[in-house]
Amino acid sequence: MRIAPRRASVLLLGMAASLAASCSEEAGARGELVVVCHWSGLAGEDLRVFGAEYDTTPTLTRWASSALDKQDAAARKAPLTSQVASLLCGVGSELHGLLSLAEPGHESITMEVETVAERARRGGWRTLAAVSHAKYTVAGLGRGFDLWRAPELGEGQRDAAQVWASIEENLAAELERAPRVFVWLEFGDLWGDEWTRSDHADSFLDKRLQSFRGKGGAVDDAYAASDEERSLVQRLKRRLFRQGGGRARTALEASLIGARLGQLDGVLANLEDLARDTSAKLDWAVVCGDLRLASAGAGAVFPATNFGQEVPPGRQSIAVESAGRGDLSVSLNPLDGSFSLLGDGGQASSRGASLEGPGNLVFELSQRGTGLRLVLQGPACTPEGVRIGSTSLADSDICELQDKHGVDWPVDPETVAILEVRSLGGRRERVIVATGGEVRLLIEYFPPNRDLWTTLEGQGLEISEHATRADCVEVSGAGPFEFDLPARVPRERLGLALFVAGERVPAEQINYRGQRFAVRGRLELLFSPGIWLAPELCAAVSDSAVAPIAIELHDPVARSGGHKKQPRAERAFLRRLDPSE
Known about the structure:
Helices cover 26% and strands 25% of the residues. By secondary structure, it is of the alpha+beta class.
């Protein structure tokens, strides 16, 4: 598997199916290292100025070259913790639950959401992370990482060099023994005061100020100052704000940015050296700037309104333009339950979404070799329930059916309610785990509720505190079992996550809080390179109670009126799709 820079948004949107799926592939002679680097408060404008014009950060420029096309030059504002959570979960805060560290009940991601790291680890990858601030630990973003390096509460923020030093030795050891390693590196806000005391900043500033030397004013005063307790940056900063000096002030600000980028560039160079020493194949993704303004081409996430939105009845439709390039668009029409997908099959792109509404369908579109791979997941996703034209997949040779069974889960696929919560007279709820084997259930709650702990102990369950979270208890043992929740546990702040045989149960296989999910069918379809008449695939999917899922392939040029007469090849192709025409 290779995740190229321009495919960074696939990983960052949480579309980590390729990481999980790669466990079935044979590892090559060399190991694989996938690195996601995230810089808070760094803008594309900074990379352009110091990477291209002055060539002070060659490694950073090369890594971030694919992120420059769509980066917003003004996006220097550090992202919120909830936005970083969206980066690692692939969904917005409405779904992952983290709104603010200061808001009780919403200061961490919910157990129902699976992170990129969890998906990667499920696929056989070793997962490591190093971050600059303890707030990411509080937010629960360390979930899924085999190794999590973060400052302790009250320690303050680490700079890029400290972040790298905290993980370098462990990463080298993992690359020596693990065939696949996934790493997330988060470097803190670039505008902290600690940078003004950096020797690296002084070095950058000295180079930029040479043209201002010998002309008097604030620059010469800063060099002549005898205050050794302050750095050159600090001395000049004080004099500039006292005496003015627009050009020198610009040089100061640029030098501070350059100092930060220079330190980051050193980290990336060390990463490349480490991969070279261990003969690991290095793939990377770069994320920078304000995640609310950056596009998917720069590795940002989409607003949650586009993914997982419940569509109410009425005249409303959702349109999503993916990747910022228009190579994929998604629409859901709640009037007839139709689901349409429009994509450029000629691109090496992989996109997906889960749209909640009448269709309630999950799809993933990607390139497999020179062909196209389409994964459909939903209640009607069976070879008999999916049709191309008037022919079901069970009888069609239009595409190759890769997965006829669909449910890739180590339990009986006939089990509908693996985990169920039932209301008992409106005051109590009973949790039922209807599956056997080794079961581990995480119960997330806020604020800490002693009644919950006492109730669980009184029902003979094996419970323990969570290793890293104060708002979570763990119930383990052999299933099936059931227990009651006390009345004073707030329902709106309760979350459940179920693990069977060490594997997390997907949310769609859980009957929870009145949402009844059946085990969904899953189909993986492979289309040959010539299956589309033009480099565009249009799939119209209907998932209603009476109609099966239907996939239609169209020539977009003919549909737009570009052809006065339908080409012979197209007519023959459509006859294959629907013999009745």
